[in-house]
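Researcher: Following up on the earlier apo prediction. This time include the ligand. It's zinc ion, with the SMILES given after the sequence.
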Amino acid sequence: MVLECECGNRTGLFATGDRDEHGREFIELEDDDRFSYEIGGDSIVFRCAFCGYRYRLKQFSPFE
Ligand SMILES: [Zn+2]
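Model: Understood. Below is the ligand-bound prediction.
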């Protein structure tokens, strides 16, 4: 999985091999110098470290 900003900055997300109790595997950013992320109440915000642009991933409803 790849995360890419409009400015061309990109990094990958890799699977850690660890799973939670529902069998879902945890993922992490390959390079957190390129992007950082922040988890809010109902969304996750990814911030590009090159241009400062922020992307918001909204959580529409819980899975469970
Ligand atoms: Zn960018």
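Model: The longest strand covers residues 10-19.
Researcher: Noted. I'll compare it with the apo version next.
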